[in-house]
Amino acid sequence: MNAWNTIYDEFNPIAFSLGSIEVHWYGLAYACAIVIAFYIALRMIQKDPKRFPIERKEFESYFLWAELGIVLGARIGYILIYEPNSSYYLTHFWQIFNPFDSHGNFVGIRGMSYHGGLVGFLIASYLYSRKDLKKLLIYLDLIAISLPLGYVFGRIGNFLNQELVGRIVPKDSHLGQIIGIMVDNQLRYPSQLIEAFLEGVIVFLMVMWAKKHTKTHGLLIVVYGLGYSLMRFIAEFYREPDSQMGVYFLNLSMGQILSLLMVIVSLGILLYATKNSKKIKENQ
Predict the structure, then answer these.
(1) What is the pLDDT of residues 47-92, one digit of tens each?
(2) How far apart are the two ends of the chain, measured CA to CA in Å?
(3) Which positions does UniProt annotate for a 1,2-diacyl-sn-glycero-3-phospho-(1'-sn-glycerol) binding (predicted)?
């Protein structure tokens, strides 16, 4: 047993309190994720205006739409997919975004689905671009390259919040014994950090490689979708399945099943990009 194994004993998921309002590390990490994604996107617009011919003011408006779509989609997606009492929320819709418990205490909004956020993001992007669809793929590519590093902070937030814990480390796993974290007297994989590396850092490198070697609008979001799906599928082997969900056919988790569906969506975007890429280039 090393100091890293018991790191959860050394810190509190609550960063600080403002009166009765407790500010969690996860909330701060999520705020950092938004700022980083926004900054990277602006840098890309400045450095590569030919690939991203978007004015800053125009992007700022789009970013608000995208972020709203992500938050709404992530929360509603969690309720529909993971929440065991989803019927209650569907009949008390206002409770989905209620940050207070039944006693009036501020607890924040808990339970977000990445794949639900993805659906919300795509819907928001389409609605924003519907009057000028030739820019839709440009917006999607811009988010594809700015999102992964922001995502890293989101998963670090999950780690600091001591949620989405990993599977129990087998006793014969030497590496697992070194990197594992004690949770409820069980040594578990730090799945949140594994996801941060695979789904954040590795996917970012994939998208950057695609940016260097491709010129067609829409391919960056396709590479992101396929890359994320693969990395998430792998990471799920280290992440404890949601207790209310368990595993399904072939022992796949819900996260793995949704990642396979994400592959289909990515291929659909690829077909759309291939069909419309010439038109997009002509309108630049």
Answers:
(1) 999 899 999 999 999 999 999 999 999 999 999 888 888 888 888 8
(2) 59
(3) 155
Q: Given the structure tokens 């954040």, which residue do they identify?
A: 200
Q: Cβ(143)–Cβ(45) under 8 Å?
A: no
Rounded CA separation 245/81 (Å): 9
- Residue with structure tokens 């599977």? 167
The residues that bridge with 183 in the sheet, in sequence order, are: 186
The per-residue DSSP string of 130-177 comes to: TTSGGGHHHHHHHHHHHHHHHHHHHHHHHHHTT-S-BPBPPTT-HHHH
How far, in Å, are 207, 219, 264 from residue 252 at the CA level? 27, 28, 17
The structural domains of the chain, with segments of one domain joined by +, span 4-282
Given a contact cutoff of 8 angstroms between Cβ atoms, the answer to whether 160 and 196 are in contact is no
pTM for the full predicted model: 0.90
Lowest mean pLDDT among 4-13, 44-53, 59-68, 100-109: 100-109
Residue 14 belongs to what H/E stretch? strand 14-18
* Nearest-angstrom CA–CA distance, 163 and 240: 10
Between vectors from CA 126 to CA 122 and to CA 129, what angle results, nearest 5°?
A: 140
Element containing residue 66 per DSSP (H, E): helix 56-81
> DSSP letter string over 168-209?
BPPTT-HHHHHH-EEETTEEE--HHHHHIIIIIIIHHHHHHH
Strand partners, 188: 168, 181
Q: What is the mean pLDDT of the chain?
A: 89
| Whole-number Å distance between alpha carbons of 263 and 229 | 6
